Amino acid sequence: MVDEACGLPDSAGSAAPVDGAAEYLLALNGRAIDARVVAIFDKSFNQPPANQAEAGEEETADPAESLDTLLCAQCDTRARMAAAWKLGKIQSTAAVRSLVKALREGDEAAQVFAATALVSIGVPVVEPLVVALRDNNVEVRRKVIWVLWSVGDRRAVEPLIGCLGDSDHKVRAYAAWALGRLADARALPALIAALDDPHEKVRWDAAIALEKFGAQAIPALADALYDDRAPVRIGAANALGWLMDVRAIGALAAALRDSSPQVRQRAAFALGWIRDTGAVEVLIAALHDADEEVRMQAAAALGWIRDNRAIEPLAQLIEDDNEWTRYTAIEALADMQAVAPLEHARNSPHERVQEAATRALQRLSA
Question: What is the three-class DSSP state of 2?
């Protein structure tokens, strides 16, 4: 049987563990929670009160409405925490309804306690929380997404995809994180589209979420490297680098010819992060890129890969017009333990090149 008010089955699911909930929920909210609340919450929430008569097995018959009132009251923090704990233990339709109500109507502490209690209940809370994703209160939507992220039920995928279009950038970012955890292929197009979000944090979090999909995301991310929007191509290159999968090398090598210097930079970074010798030749070619930051990133990437074919091209880069590119070339040569070109660099007309080469040689001889 399903409760019409909140869409929750009458039977309760198994409890789920809660890790670092207080810190995470604090991060979701711009306003600070009283430090005493956090201290009590972190130490005590998942432990039954010392006095079992206060919240023992027989107490599970307490009316959810009374606990609901106590949770949202402006009273002793421990009493409010205990009310949330009891509601989570009852795991009935009425209890879940009370906790969702506290999310919507309670103050910040009540919202934190209610959210964590809902996580402890687990899967049965998904349907009523999906409804709460449409709440007008942005703080409610943020905390609801955290609960759905913690529960990890795939019924939340489509609603979370919808949250990528939310007016609040934090809601969009949290939705991306949640979809990354669920790693459901239905979310791939929406997360790739989110790489063009107007807010940088959302674009970054979407790229991180795509990395969570593993190998199944590679074809979609490779296609995204040809998207008309540069932010999408940049985010796709980042995600492919974090995957560290050699199957992405061909697509990233092609991205080194992109019209956007930023895309070429991120492609060079990604190829270095994968650390496969199959990228050495294209990275050596990128040492001659017109953009100094692309040359610098290509040099760093070659240092990470440590293939001897790059020693001579990197030695030539020591005479680059850009100071930071010269410095990066020296660091890359040091990573490769290429002593001869570093000795030569100590005779460079550039004083900082001399200093950097000397320091690199000292590290190698230590």
Answer: strand
Question: What would the pLDDT profile of 86-129 be if each residue is shown by its tens digit?
Answer: 888 887 888 888 888 888 888 888 888 888 888 888 888 898 88
3-state secondary structure of 9: strand
- On whether the CB atoms of residues 221 and 239 are closer than 8 A, the answer is yes
Q: What is the pLDDT of residues 281-316, one digit of tens each?
A: 999 999 999 999 999 999 999 999 999 999 999 999
Domain ranges of the chain: 1-151
Alpha carbon 316 to its chain's center = 39
- Which CATH code is given to the segment(s) 1-151? 1.25.10
Phi, psi of 2, deg, nearest 5: -115, 130
Model confidence pTM above 0.85: no
**Cα 234 from Cα 255, distance rounded (Å):** 10
Contact 314, 281 (CB under 8 A): no
d(CA 217, CA 245): 11
- Enter the DSSP assignment of 11: S
